[in-house]
């Protein structure tokens, strides 16, 4: 197979050249040589997706063509073009079928995996539960969960499995929001199940089809999926055993009301699928971000001290309320900088165009695939000098403006993260309360954690940090 990607664009659209207004149809942007099938590119990507794409961007610019038979894939890293794609061309895009088919094994047909009218109906039914107002009302529950968890953390000085402890806490928060229930042993077991299913899903994405789950080596995945499904069904069944007027005010009750009012549009399976998505998307991502934030605080003691001082001044030892959050401005910038360095979803689910479209002067046929590697965009030295350094001041009110689209850890356009208000509120409350009670530092001799991409971006090895109780004025 011949690639149609010339190593140098014949129309001068190299990294440093100004784009002409329109390239003729049939000419692809520059990209790496693909050989006969392009599968060597795929193999490289399966080993190190972010590293490979970073190299290609360095060599070919902000719009890179990958010819991987039978697909033409375009990697877009220019902030304005990414917005053109995800906002302007939203109606001409569908999510990559293979990715959706892998996600559906666990999520079923939920707002995360649905397309078109089905997606619109689900999204608008769920939106009120994730609105800023609904999230504000939930702040006391988040603070309650955090207070209970932090009371169980060590009092003296100790190396502490902070990643696992923060994952349990975010799981507790989402269980309260969805089921008015606290974390128990069944839910704790879900942590291991999740690791197994995420690893299996990540590996399967690079295969054209999945082998059946009864294959002997898929035991961990099989068990993981069964455990997670049991966890959700257990909650749904318990709720259905109650009279509707005894249902608590939470996400599950709101979904069951939809089911009761219109069982054809909202069968119990749909309720189950939405619960699974909210449970998985709603705690994994916040756990990963808080883990990286704890690392950034430990590795940057001055920033930690500044954030703690702000928390002390604003909260005066109290639990945070929704009204306090806008005053925790510096703390918010530490979380934004963490999301820039370590976006929980470092690569958006690839999209496929359903119609021919023009993007950045390139005329691309229907069926073209698009990849948006957020992590790379957020490490772009053009907007983020010294991009690997932790500098919360990049997000200060007075800092120079960043190009729109250069920072989008929650995605953008109509499919922007449904839970972004919940996530930012929850992470601010938990981070503030952690700083009120503990200092974190890097254990002696510990090397910086390496990020590993398994659906979300987590430290390669479970993160442990040195924890010490902090007593205000003590
Ligand atoms: C730090 C935390 C989080 C990050 C960084 C994050 C990131 C993202 C991103 C980047 C997307 C868009 C994916 C794409 O376009 O391919 C997304 C979608 C989504 N997120 Fe989040 N997320 C976070 C927390 C949450 C929470 C707490 C929930 C709560 C349930 C949630 C639920 C969802 C859902 C349902 C979607 C799919 C929306 C749709 O397709 O309409 N996320 N998230």
From TrEMBL:
Signal sequence, renumbered to the chain: none
Organism: Massilia frigida
Ranges of Pro residues composition bias in the record: 22-31
InterPro entries: Cyt_P450, Cyt_P450_CS, Cyt_P450_E_grp-I, Cyt_P450_sf, Cytochrome_P450_monoxygenase
Family listed: Belongs to the cytochrome P450 family.
Reported cofactor(s): heme
Alphabetical list of Pfam families matching this protein: p450
Protein known as: Cytochrome P450
Alphabetical UniProt keywords: Heme, Iron, Metal-binding, Monooxygenase, Oxidoreductase
Region of interest called Disordered, as start-end residue ranges on this chain: 1-31
Coiled coil (UniProt feature): none
